[in-house]
Structure formats: structure tokens, C-alpha cells
Amino acid sequence: MTNPAIEAHGLRKSYGDKVVLDGVDLTVPAGSVFALLGPNGAGKTTVVKILSTLITAGPGSGAIRIGGHDPAADPRAVRAAIGVTGQFSAVDGLITGTENMLLMADLHHLPRRAGRQAAAELLRRLDLAEAAGKPASTYSGGMKRRLDIAMTLMGNPRIIFLDEPTTGLDPRARHTMWQIIRELVADGITVFLTTQYLEEADQLADRIAVLHDGGIVAEGTAAELKRLVPGGHVRLRFTDPAAYRAAAAALGAAGRDDEALSLQIPGDGSQHALRAVLDGLDAAGVRAEELTVHTPDLDDVFFALTGSDHRPGAGIPEEARR
Q1: What residues have CB less than 8 Å from 112, skipping those under 6 apart?
Q2: Which one of 31, 166, 211, 302 is least enclosed by Cβ atoms within 10 Å?
Q3: Chain segment 9-66, per-residue pLDDT in tens
Q4: Cα–Cα–Cα angle for 51, 54, 58, nearest 5°?
Q5: What are the φ/ψ torsions at residue 293 (nearest 5 degrees)?
Q6: What is the pTM of this model?
Q7: CA distance to 103, 109, 119, 131, per residue, from 124 (Å)
Q8: Measured over all CA atoms, what is the biggest interatomic distance in the chain, rounded to whole angstroms?
Q9: How far apart are CA 258 and CA 88, in angstroms?
Q10: Alpha carbon 17 to chain centroid distance?
């Protein structure tokens, strides 16, 4: 087994009397996408800044290893292994795309020829070659974000932190960014992503953690998190009233709609739950005209974890909370 790309145990950070992070634990496997979700002000950006050495957590504030290195003991080794794209663009609009890239090449101390070759290749890869000679101020929001990513990749990092990379982008530009992230991971790069778009985490992340009240209140795959929230069900619709009544009797406490001839059976969307419904129909000797499976989405999970009841994990069964 390879070592995790990112490890944080007992991560803490306070600003005066305000506790922002209170014992955060994170483990991110190499070559994966890890998404950190949380309400505005939950501390997502603080986590990124600490893990990427932009700020220090302070003494006694937890143990961190990034790419196998301790940021406190060897911050240069960590910085050599990572790239960071923050919430706000690092692009200089007064110079061209190529010139922005060459500035990054200089920061990474690349030889001039190697820097130009890397800049041209990255601009081509992120579909910016035609605009490379134009001032970055003329770029669209999506183009500037792609240039941000290209600049981040200039040092050939194996771990990339993306702090809300698609905020403010239109749907087409957002989907383009998603494809870029997928390609990076296919190349073996680890991506640590914060986002306010739950669909984004659902589409991209191998694992998702929800940050609230200073701690991680749930973590898992998107499918695992969705199963934490009650409300999933299988809906059966019938056209034959006799079949409807037989199914209702066989399936017990199913929610009934006698007018629509439909039944709603609670379930978590798993194969086991669906099999139980099908076995019940077989036992009754009837067939439904229509079967649909409804499972909670990440919006449901997010609101259950961070909604009006502000206790960590409110709305989530006790055994599912971290």
C-alpha cells in the first residue's frame, strides 16, 4: 500500500477566542479526489492554508504530513510537492497568458528553455494555446480559471489544493473544469477540493468530508453519505387494483396512495433493500407497472448535518456520525 498523500490528525486552529478547527482528522489516498464541504465560514479555506503551508496551525495543534513530509519540519519539501489554486485568481491581467506561465517557471527556477516548453505544453493541454499571446484581462472567467490551473501545474506537483475552483463560473465552464480535474487524477495527481457546489463533490470526489462546528461530522463516499439520511424509498405504481391491494398486503407498512394505486416502501437504495421489495412482489404473485428508486442526495446530507439544528451530526443516526 502507498502512503497517503495527505494526513492530518487532531488539527486545531484558533484566532483569538474563536476556535475555527477543533481536532480535524483527514486522510487522503494518493491519486484520488477528496472534497471538503461545509457552510461558509466553516473553516475550509483555513484547512487548505494550513495543509499548503500558507499559514501555521501553531504548536500543539495536531500532526500533519503532506506527501510524506512534515510541514513544520520541512516546509520546502512540502511546497515542492504541492500546487495551490485559491478562491481568487492569481492571474496578472496586465500580461499575456504565456508571460504569466513564464513567471511561474521563474519561481520554480526552471531553465529558460524548459520553462518555455512547459508553458506551451500546459497552455495547449488546457486549451489556451490560441489565447496565449493575449493579455489575461481579455480572458473569460473560465479561461482565467484554466490559466490558474496551468500556473499551478508549472512545478509538476503531485498534490493540488483547489479552493472552490469553479465559483462564479457558468455551467459550461464548470463542466470543463471538472474534466480537467478528472484528467489530472488520471495522471496520478491527488486533488484536495473545497467546493460550495454539492453536485461538484458528487461528480468528482472519491471521498467527501463535511466540516461543521470545527470538526468533521461525516466522511465517506457520496453513496455512503447519502445512505446516512432517512427518506430513501422505492415507489411502486400499479394499474390493476387487485394487484395493488395484494402488493400492499404483502409489503406491510408501505405508504399507500389508493387513488394513484402507488406504494412507497422505505429503503436506503441498496441492492438488499430492492431485493426485499422484489421478493415481496414475487410472494404476492404480482408485478408492478412501474418501479422507481429514490435516494437522498448530497443536499439532503448537507442540510441534515449543517441545518438549523447546529449540533454536529444533527439529523444523522448516532452510529453514522464521526
Answers
A1: none
A2: 31
A3: 999 998 888 889 999 999 999 999 999 998 888 899 999 999 999 888 777 678 999 9
A4: 70
A5: -105, 125
A6: 0.78
A7: 17, 22, 9, 10
A8: 80
A9: 55
A10: 30
